[in-house]
Design brief:
Elements: E1 6-11, E2 17-23, E3 31-36, H1 46-57, E4 60-65, H2 82-99, E5 105-109, H3 111-119, E6 128-132, H4 149-155, E7 157-162, E8 165-170, H5 171-177, H6 182-187, E9 192-197, H7 206-215, E10 220-224, H8 235-253, H9 256-261, E11 274-277, E12 285-289, E13 292-296, H10 311-333, E14 340-351, E15 368-379, H11 384-394, H12 398-404
Parallel strand pairs: 3-4, 3-5, 5-6, 6-9, 9-10
Antiparallel strand pairs: 1-2, 2-4, 7-8, 11-12, 12-13, 14-15
Helix pairs in contact: 1-8, 2-3, 10-11
């Protein structure tokens, strides 16, 4: 069955139903992560989606939700504050603990990053925390409506515009901010910390990253997001941040036992490759080969997300990898001083009559065939005879032989197992 995001709901701090989604990997779940979005943002922010996708590729499931009064969640945003956001996060962790598994990784963007730091101590199962563009002083959020501060304090509330959307901010929101010390939370974290921040962030300055990083104790890491903006609007910036978090987090949140067990094939399936839809885009498919996870997709022009090689590119890659391995095995066996091998493989569907190297066959004039071309580069001080022999050995590659043979494909319904 295809794995698709699960739509969820749970009760928030103020009694409202909070809208959530759980993004699951195609293979076994090795760990769970909880994501907190930025001030007035939603769970569907580009950065949140990219991070969930990257973590899914590492076998990590991700829960992201809308805070009270935002996105698809119920409740009144004007009645919320930073304290209620923290309680929303605690309840999200409680929900995961009861229904699935407590999060081992906590991720927060902007004010969500500050919230994650503040609440991390209340989630003992969490082993690692990652913040993106987080403020070290949460009063920083008031800069979004600085021109309304006097009115809020005098009248008790004011209408403000944030990212082009109207919101009501009450005085209790401002008063609540003063009760929280993010640097103190970072100093008492006692969990692995990754701080990501862009030097040119115009919303939350880079000095905030320095303060959080300095306050925290080891293990801690800092990664610059180069020229990214605060919201990581450029998909390339979001993808970079997502991949960094996924790679960094895995050693902290995926145990050796879990990683080892992921190498076993799912119950009821034969050994081999498992291919499952991810639910992202039209064609994106997760390939699980033992402990390894890869994405397959189609180009954007064909309706895909271009998030991974196409099936035919994987087929060409198999031929290239097998060719290189076969040549290396022979060279080592014969003690040939071969310094390096590279194989470039291209694939085309052509008319048989246009293939000068294909020989005669049935329907030679009308048939369309798959033509793979290999260009092999051999590095080293090799004689012409040795080079010729190594090129001949390439044709003994098992994948080469499979592609040229009459392979048989048997298809069964999983229910017939």
């Amino acid at each position: 069955m295809a794995v698709r995001p699960i739509r969820l709901g749970f009760e928030g701090a103020m009694g409202a139903s909070l809208s959530a989604r759980l993004d699951l990997p195609a293979g076994p779940v090795l760990a769970y992560a909880l994501f907190a979005h930025c001030f007035t943002c939603t769970k569907d922010l580009t950065a949140a989606r990219k991070i969930a996708q990257a973590l899914n590729e590492q076998g990590i499931a991700v829960l992201r939700f809308d805070f009270t009064g935002l996105g698809g969640s119920g409740g009144d945003f004007a009645s919320t504050n930073f304290t209620s956001n923290l309680e929303d996060l605690r309840r999200a962790a409680d929900y995961m603990r009861i229904e699935y598994e407590a999060p081992k990784l906590l991720i927060g963007h902007s004010l969500g990053g500050a919230a994650i730091l503040a609440v991390a101590g209340d989630i003992p199962e969490a082993m690692a925390v990652a913040t993106i563009a987080a403020p070290a002083d949460i009063n920083h959020v008031t800069e979004n409506f600085a021109d309304k501060l006097a009115e809020i304090r005098a009248a008790g509330q004011a209408d403000v515009s944030l990212s082009g959307r109207p919101f009501v901010i009450k005085k209790q929101f401002l008063d609540d901010l003063a009760a929280h010390d993010i640097e103190k939370s970072a100093a008492s974290l006692h969990k692995a910390l990754l701080v990501l921040h862009a030097p040119m962030d115009q919303t939350v300055g880079i000095d905030n990253a320095s303060r959080i990083f300095t306050a925290a104790r080891h293990p801690k890491s800092y990664v610059s997001l180069n020229k990214a903006d605060h919201l990581l609007r450029d998909p390339d910036d979001a993808t970079y941040a997502a991949n960094v978090i996924a790679t960094w987090a895995r050693p902290y949140v995926v145990t050796k036992d879990a990683a080892a067990s992921s190498g076993t094939t799912p119950a009821g399936a034969d050994e081999g490759i498992l291919a499952r839809e991810t639910g992202l885009g039209k064609f994106q498919t997760m390939l699980v080969a033992g402990p390894h996870r890869m994405l397959a997709d189609e180009p954007e022009g064909a309706g895909g997300l271009a998030s991974g090689p196409s099936p035919y590119e994987y087929l060409a890659a198999s031929l290239g990898a097998c060719t290189s391995m076969t040549i290396r095995m022979y060279a080592d066996f014969k003690q040939i001083a071969l310094d390096g091998i590279s194989v470039q493989v291209t694939h085309q569907k052509i008319h048989a009559r246009d293939c000068a190297d294909c020989g005669d066959g049935p329907h030679q004039d009308t048939a369309r065939i798959d033509r793979f071309e290999r260009v092999i580069t051999l590095q080293g001080d090799l004689s012409d005879d040795v080079r010729k022999k190594l090129i001949e050995i390439a044709n003994k590659c098992p994948v080469h032989r499979t592609l040229e043979s009459n392979a048989v494909i048997v298809t069964r319904d999983s229910r017939d197992q």
